Every structure is written in C-alpha cells, then in structure tokens.
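Reminder: ligand-aware prediction takes two inputs, not one.
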Amino acid sequence: MTDLPTSIDDTASRLLAHDYVPDRQLATVVYLALKLQRPLFLEGEPGTGKTEIARTLAAILNRPLIRLQCYEGLDLAGAAYEWNYGRQMMEIRLAEGTSTSRDALASELFSERFLTKRALLQSIDPANPVAPVLLIDELDRADEPFEAFLLEVLSDFQITIPELGTVKAITPPIVVLTSNRTREIHDAVKRRCLYHWVGFPDAARELEILKRRVPGAADALARQIVAFVQKLREIELYKLPGIAETIEWARALMELDTLVLDPEVIQHTLGVLLKYQDDIAKLQGSEAARLLEQVKRDVQAV
Ligand SMILES: Nc1ncnc2c1ncn2[C@@H]1O[C@H](COP(=O)(O)OP(=O)(O)OP(=O)(O)O)[C@@H](O)[C@H]1O
Ligand SMILES: [Mg+2]
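Here is what comes back for the chain with adenosine-5'-triphosphate:
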C-alpha cells in the first residue's frame, strides 16, 4: 500500500505518471475524495476516462481493485452476498444422526463459512490486509431500487446481514461510482459522494492523452486526429466520439500507415469513431472533406 497524495498537484502528477491526464477539477475532486474518505461519483459522456480513474487509483495506491459492473436486475445476492444453500443442505445432511443440537446447527449454518461474498462485501471485509478500491461501474444500468442497498455501504462502509450481524470495514475502501446518465441517480446516493462531471477534454489535453496512450503516433498526425475529433464533437450527432475512440482511431490510422489525414482514409475508417449509421451517413460525401479543410487550417495556424 502506498500513501495517499499530499496535495492536488501531487494527485495530478501521480495520475500523469500512470498516463492518466486529468484536468485541474478532476485532480481536485480526486484529492478531496481520498482525503475526506468520501466516495467519488463520476458522471459523464461515454469513453471519457471514468472507469479508467478507478483502475489508475488502484495502481497509484497499490491496492486491489474490486469491480462491480452494474446491470439490469442486479440485486443484493449479485452485489453483496449470498448464502450458499448447497453447502448448507450438505451440512444439514451431515449433522443428521449426530448429537448436534438444532440451535447449534442453525447458528453454524448462518456463519461466515456459508457466506458467498460478492464485490460490496469483499470491499469492506475486515479481513482485508489493505482497503481496496471499489469500482461501482455504470450504476445507471442497475434498477433504481438497487441504489437503496448502496446507502449503508456508502455512508458507513458497512453492510448489515440479518442472520449474521453488521460487517464493517476497518479501513474504508476507496469508492468510485460511475454513470453514463441514461437516467438520474437518486439524490440519496449522490449526497453521500463527491460529484464530478467528466466532459470531453479540450484539444490540448486530448493531444497529451493521445501522445501518452499511442506513443508511436507522429506529431502532425496526432494533431490532425485531435482537431478532427474536436470538430466532430461540434456536429449534431447521435453519439459523439469519446477519448477511447480517438485513441482507437489513431491506432487504426497508424496500422494503415497513414501519415496525414485525407478524405478517403477518413471515409474508410469512420466506423472506428462513429458507431451509428446515421452519424456515419452525415459524414459521407463532402462533409468529411469540408471538416478536414478546416482542420488543416486550424492545425497550421497553431
Ligand atoms: N484523462 C485520460 N487520460 C488518459 N487516458 C484516458 C483519459 N480518459 C480516457 N482515457 C482513455 O480512454 C479509454 C476509455 O476510458 P474509460 O473506459 O475509462 O471510459 P468511460 O468514461 O468509463 O467510458 P464508458 O462510459 O463507455 O464506460 C481508457 O482506456 C483510456 O485509455
Ligand atoms: Mg466505463
């Protein structure tokens, strides 16, 4: 385990050292979340580095990452714990004909031995040698009632199991929640967290991200890629490309030995950036060429 960052600057430089390029606001909220031991709630556009921040924090702080991917129908059994009925039944069979009293058997059956621990419970297990980073990813995919399960974990870092009692973390885990805002998350959850909206980066930060994530990309090409993607985000599209798409596109273009953008290579690789036919159709014809002309002018002007 490594010590927590000592300042906003320290937070930023340690994120950078792991090739995560934060803006000042993100570095501030991360620093505060760690300092104040509060969960960090990140909402934002897809592919803008929300999940990655949890991975990076685990790496920086040298802690295990426990990930809870949310989905429709996720419940307590999938997220926190489940009694292992199979093993309990076996235990009952084994106890038959022995002198074990019913009370003793009942309390044995609902002991930790028969408990299957899922992500939430694992993250607060007092037996953990170090407190992990708990990533509750894409909370907006879970059903609303599920959020109620989280309240106890998020505010007190504990879970009450009716048959067993309350399990509480000795040292609180570092909690990161993400949402793509396909629906609003309940205020009660948000209130327990520090909130940050993760938007698209400006051109300078996106260029820095690209250089770090795709180190082989030539400077001229990287600048064009970033300028083009930034222009794309100004167009009315159904789904705007995120940072993940910019990185993918750079890799794809390098794979094709592209040195500078031209309308043809853009047309042929649009599927790396845009994932909806309507969006791709918008860029077909002269639109890509028109954007590229603007990009060339902008990049030259810098
Ligand atoms: N600030 C950043 N610095 C460096 N790399 C970044 C940054 N933001 C995003 N990335 C890169 O973009 C990729 C996608 O990020 P990530 O998976 O965290 O997005 P996300 O916001 O969780 O998206 P989704 O909502 O689709 O899950 C990461 O693997 C990382 O390589
Ligand atoms: Mg994600």
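The chain has a mean pLDDT of 95. Residues 84 and 114 are 5 Å apart (CA to CA). We will return to this case in the review session.
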